Amino acid sequence: MDFDILLPICICVVLPIMVVWLRTRAQQNEINRKTEVMLKAIESGSAIDNDFFKAQSLQKKPKSLKEKLLGRLTGACINSLLGVAGLVGGSLLWQSGCENEDSLFLVGVGAILLAVGIALFIVYFVGKRMLAGEIAAEERALEK
After folding, report:
1. CA pair distance 85, 69, nearest whole angstrom
2. Which is higher by pLDDT, 4 or 14?
3. How many CB atoms lie within 10 A of CB 118?
4. What pTM was estimated for this model as a whole?
5. Range of 138's domain?
């Protein structure tokens, strides 16, 4: 068997299956723990909370506008830094005499990441200016 094809098969087939299996197993373990706690509460005659088995994602509070904007700022910084690193790395490879497809690919990926980072910076600054009133109102509501 050709081992060059083994790595892409593992990444594209086995890895997603393992991620889904692990996530499902973690959820099942959480449900089992909650079931044990509920059974102990029933046995002892304690009051039972109706919202005990709700999904964890439903219990979390939604993100505020400020948190969403800061998430975009974080994404912009990461994409921009990776883009600059790709451009610099590809340029250094090109200048060192490795004029092959790898250096061009690295420059291309770096340019795309830098463009996405710049777009996210624009979204952050425009959103910050447009939503300044709503963010201030959310902060005032949280202080009360």
Report:
1. 24
2. 14
3. 14
4. 0.59
5. 62-143
